[in-house]
Amino acid sequence: MITLLGSYVHGRHQTVWSGGLVSLLEELEFSNGAARVALTRLVNRGLILRVRQGRLVHYRMTPRAARVLAEGDGRIFSLGRPRDDGSCWTFLWHQIPEDRRLERSRLGKRLRFLGFGSLQDSVWVSPHDHQEEVVELLDELGVASYASVFLAPSESARGLRVAAERAWDLSGLAERYAAFEAEFAGYLGGASPAELLSDRQAFLVRTRLIQLFRVFPFLDPELPEELVPLAAERGRAVATFDVLWTSLADAAKRHFDGVILGYLAV
């Protein structure tokens, strides 16, 4: 559901018909019940709001959802395009009390999406400069008073290889990139991918594409090549993603809009 909101609603529509979202998830092989449970969970998490329009229920994304999706897009669409040269690593240390487990959990999930790895339960590290994002995240979660964030120049640091091996489990990542490439490279024929697929097929392929690709930022911290040589595998997967994400966009959006047409408040 988050994938649908980020790919086809965010920045395009103010509200969407609940029945349309359920139908689209059913096309993606989710049951009607599971789709409606997903919507309810997003309401409970404060990511969408129910809006009644006559007898129909629509949903509107909240400002919090917009922030989460913007943060996610920043990480997803920057993968393979390093934000810096890795000359500074970011370290976070915190002592968030046990009675604030929810904030601890949310912090961990958001840090992993930024590419952080955990050295210990309360010590996190990234091979890039994420100081500003982490400070904003701590403020957003209301736990800034329990944490310290600092940068360490990588050229003067020792034991980075040991830290990398401890913070991230990169076993099998090259194979996952290769599997992603193998699944989607077949759509990159001589003709435009959109010319080979119907609008519905384009929607299904493009949605699966982003759903699988969005996992990589959690898994790949983009460590320096001398520590973990993954540039070739990552580069091929990113190139395939970029071509398909763009070339299938119009057809996929037509199908999405067509399913909710007539019930959509623009």
Layout of helices and strands, plus pairs?
Blueprint: H1 2-9, E1 15-17, H2 18-27, H3 32-44, E2 48-53, E3 56-61, H4 63-76, E4 88-94, H5 101-113, E5 117-120, E6 123-126, H6 131-141, E7 147-153, H7 160-167, H8 173-184, H9 193-196, H10 199-213, H11 216-219, H12 231-247, H13 249-260
Antiparallel strand pairs: 1-3, 2-3, 4-6, 4-7, 5-6
Report on the structure:
With 266 residues, the chain is α+β, with helices and mostly antiparallel strands. The protein folds into 3 domains: 65 residues, Arc Repressor Mutant, subunit A; 85 residues, 2-Layer Sandwich (Alpha-Beta Plaits), CATH 3.30.70.240; 86 residues, no CATH class. The chain has 13 helices and 7 strands. The strands form 2 sheets. It has a 4-stranded antiparallel sheet. Strands 1-3-2 form a 3-stranded antiparallel sheet. A hairpin with a 2-residue loop joins strand 2 and strand 3. Helix 2 packs across helix 3. It is flat. The mean pLDDT is 89.
Give short descriptive properties of this protein.
alpha+beta, 266 residues, Arc Repressor Mutant, subunit A, 7 strands, flat, 13 helices, 3 domains
Domain count? 3
- Give me the count of strands: 7
Number of discrete helical segments: 13
Task: Summarize the helix and strand pattern as letters.
Answer: HEHHEEHEHEEHEHHHHHHH
Radius of gyration (Å): 20 Å
Could you list the spans in which at least 5 consecutive residues all have pLDDT below 50? none
User: What's the mean pLDDT score?
Assistant: 89
- Derived structural class: alpha+beta
The proportion of strand residues reads 5-15%
Query: Numbering strands along the chain, what is their spatial order in the largest sheet?
Result: 5-6-4-7
Tell me, what's the shape?
A: flat
Q: What's the main sheet like?
A: 4 strands, antiparallel
C-alpha termini separation: 19 Å
Helix content range: 40-55%
